[in-house]
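Why show two proteins at once? Because comparison is the fastest way to build intuition. When a single record is shown, students tend to memorize it. When two are placed side by side, the eye starts asking what differs. So, the first record is below.
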Amino acid sequence: MEGFRLTRERPGTILAWGGVYFLGIMIMAAVMAVGLGPQFIDFVKKGGLESGDAEAFGSLLAQSWPAFLVVLLVAVVLLSILTSGIYRLVLRPQEVGFAHLRLGRDEVRLAAVNLLLFGIGMVCLFVVELVTAAAAQHGGPGVAAIAALAVAAPTIWIGVRLSMVTPMSFAAHRITIGPAWQLTRGRFWPLFGMIVLAVIFYIMIWMLITVIGYVIVTLAGGQQAIADMSHPAPGAVIAFIASLIIQLLLPILQVVMIYAPFAVAYQQLHGDQPANPLRAHAQSS
């Protein structure tokens, strides 16, 4: 429930993070516009971004490796800045900044950790797909499903055992792969249960905000009324602004729901005092 608590106690901070997220998205869009040129503009005009077609978007980026690498780097840095803000708010609330966000060694360190974990995840995914394809070729769909489950189980175990790497690296001011692995020894099931609940809350937030956005758009006259802004009605303008705010806040709320529990889990496993950002901030001031 840590993500809900932070959202309730720091709504202004969440809004500020939404603004930073918007800035990061604009930077990535500018990189893609420069690197891909007319192809990206045509992709946007056809509604590629709104449709959420990851395969089409990935194919577009694959046409320009420099643009892909820059977008990946900006995305990792943006995620690292936001997760650092969450960890800072929970673990070191006395450190100030723009809404507890900074761009320094902690963020660079987390970016390196995220890239490392991303690489490990890609290797695990490749192994799962390789084993599944081999099993399907020799034994059919049933054997492939069993093989996929058999390979996915240790992959999930590795992911849970490495779940404390990012908060511990932030707290210790150094990359802590080995110590984080030791910290989670014998704690697989509690951490796995926490991750499952965090994902459930993630989905709940997505569903709730999606329903709210749908209701707002419907009351304003539907999607066509918002899309045609040549003669905007007051309701359509309000719905457009509300939809924009929802689209900016939804990813931030989801990131908070996913990453905030890891900071508290690290505190508990490390034996630190429970998180209470508002009280800690008041005492430090």
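Second record. Ask yourself what differs from the first in the token line.
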Amino acid sequence: MNLKELILNPNDFFKYLLNKEVSLKTPFLIVLIFSVLMSAYSYYTTSIMFKIFPSDMQGMMSMMIIITAVSSLVGGFISWLLIAAVMHIISMAFKGVGSFKRTFEFTGYGFIANLIALCITIPIGYYFLSSAHITTLTVAQLQNPAVVKQVMSSILPKTMIYTNLLVGIAVSLWNLSLWTYGIKYARNLELKKAFIVALIPTVLFGAYQLYSVAKFL
């Protein structure tokens, strides 16, 4: 079994892995690559957007950029742990059987959807941001939400935001599919029950990601 099978036939992929020893190596690599790319992208985008701050604030902004990048790096692994924990706990209500380590393993594979999505959104983001005209604001202007929103809109065009929203919705649906089959075999559940278990964390995780994009509209 390879990752192509995970993408094209997740049911058979997880069914096959169920007969193998639990191994976190591949899902760890998936989440690691996703987190590193997300961190680098966050560093790049915040570096561009924070140019609106005056020069005397750039030192503080540089620290914020680093904090944002580190948070994105760590956030991928925290999301993996939380989503696995939530699905494992919810599956108890359906009398799911199976170790948390197996749930953790299968949940990690679901992040392949987010990784592939980044390979789409990063080039799009770079295309728009690399040619963006940045207007440096004064402290007084920064205190005016309307001015800040107007400048941000010029940096992040609606075409880019709507594209990211559509990609985000598609990824959430893909996450739901992968995690449904993953938790089905990790916890020995019927498909309908597995769908319910996977739905809650998928909605929460997807809503957070969509909010992160939609707030710029």
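One difference worth noting in the second protein: The longest helix spans residues 58-92.
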